[in-house]
């Protein structure tokens, strides 16, 4: 199976969130810095991941994204389909 750049970035970003504390929100800037990914590209991806119900977003000073369900319940094919 060949992964697209978009798919690889989405899986990498979801993995980054899964490695953080489960109840903490992770900002796109933090993911971008840790994984060396474009923040504007991540914004586009997270919009799709949020619509697919894989992440929850929160705005404001303590905002960011976190997984919408437990990491062991999220499959790679769900991320790629989103």
Explain what you see.
The protein is mainly alpha-helical and 82 residues long. The chain has one domain: Winged helix-like DNA-binding domain superfamily/Winged helix DNA-binding domain (Arc Repressor Mutant, subunit A). It is built from four helices and two strands, in the order αααββα. The protein has helices at residues 5-18, 28-35, 39-51, 76-81, and strands at 55-58, 64-67. The chain has a two-stranded antiparallel ribbon with strand order 1-2. β1 and β2 form a beta hairpin. The mean pLDDT is 91.
Top keywords for this entry?
single chain, 82 residues, mainly alpha, Arc Repressor Mutant, subunit A, globular
Topology:
Layout: H1 5-18, H2 28-35, H3 39-51, E1 55-58, E2 64-67, H4 76-81
Antiparallel strand pairs: 1-2
Number of strands: 2
Percent helix, as a range, is: 40-55%
Secondary structure category:
mainly alpha
Architecture in CATH? Orthogonal Bundle
> What is the CATH topology classification name?
Arc Repressor Mutant, subunit A
What does the main sheet amount to?
2 strands, antiparallel
Per CATH, the superfamily is: Winged helix-like DNA-binding domain superfamily/Winged helix DNA-binding domain
Q: How far is it from the N-terminal to the C-terminal residue, by CA?
A: 17 Å
Strand order of the largest sheet: 1-2
- The 3D shape can be described as globular
List the helices and strands in order. Answer: HHHEEH
User: How many discrete domains?
Assistant: 1
